[in-house]
Amino acid sequence: MEYTAQEIADILKGKIEGNPDTKIQGFSKIEEGKEGTISFIANPKYSKYLDTTEASVVLVNKDFSTDSKPNSTIIKVDDAYNSFAKLLSLQDNHKITDTGISDSATIRKSATVNDSAYIGEYVFIGENTTIEENVKILPHSYIGNNVTIKEGTIIYPDVKIYHDCNIGRNCIIHAGVVIGSDGFGFAPQSNKDYHKIPQVGNVIIEDNVEIGSNTSIDRATIGSTIIKKGVKLDNLIQIAHNVEIGENTVIAAQTGIAGSTKIGKDCMFGGQVGIVGHLKIGNNVKIAAQSGVSSSIKDDQVVQGSPAFNFGTYQKSYVLFRKLPELYKRINELESELKKLSNKE
To answer: In CATH, what number is assigned to the domain containing residue 31?
Structure first.
């Protein structure tokens, strides 16, 4: 990769301040910038690095201003963060260009695999499964019976997709993901034993979903566990049976969602969030990291804590919580003074 500042500005429809002939060959963080790289500033708190960075080109937002004269060539764009992401896409070194079917792959005769697909070493594909155009299935993955994987989806190594599940277009499923394992359903018996409840549903993953490594999505008891289009799931997430996650919701690592909870669209959940079953989480809800959700949440709410409640109220409460040792000490001192006064009487 080698571009001039002018070529980058043309790609991003940006405005140059500095030398348009400056060349870059790579990327860097603004605080670790090196000559020949391009960086960006989207958050104002990083503006201080503009005077010290050695990055040859820096992307900034159009409303960015500085009193200093940086050594770097500046390109002003509508959105520096998204513009930088666009450039990274041009230099994506992880694109999988392999095609064909490995000799060590096992594909059942009733399966249909498009000629443009890539099936890596030791992949298993079950009966009546359909693999569409430009699907990439990397080594050691298991695809069960009656599965559909639609065009452009990438399945990384060691993914397990159980029977009857459907995967949409242009999805990315990272290593170690399990889709369609049994939901956690057991009926207690009179002898204190448990009877396993058959899980006869499936999992439906819609288009443009990305699922992080070692995430597990359970099949429905009856019906479907549904991950709607545009959802982004981080690593190490547990999605239980019959959960539904709405469009373009993003969920960070180590979150667990219990059975039959319905989550709206455009939500954002921090890491290690826990949500109990049979709840309804509205649209555009934000849940702070390590929160425990035990009741339904209406649209457009921001919550934190365990149990989770309004974010602003939580922040005020936390200030008081941190002062509890001091307040406790003061109460004890006041009680002691009152006791002394009482004794004098």
So the answer is: 3.40.1390.10
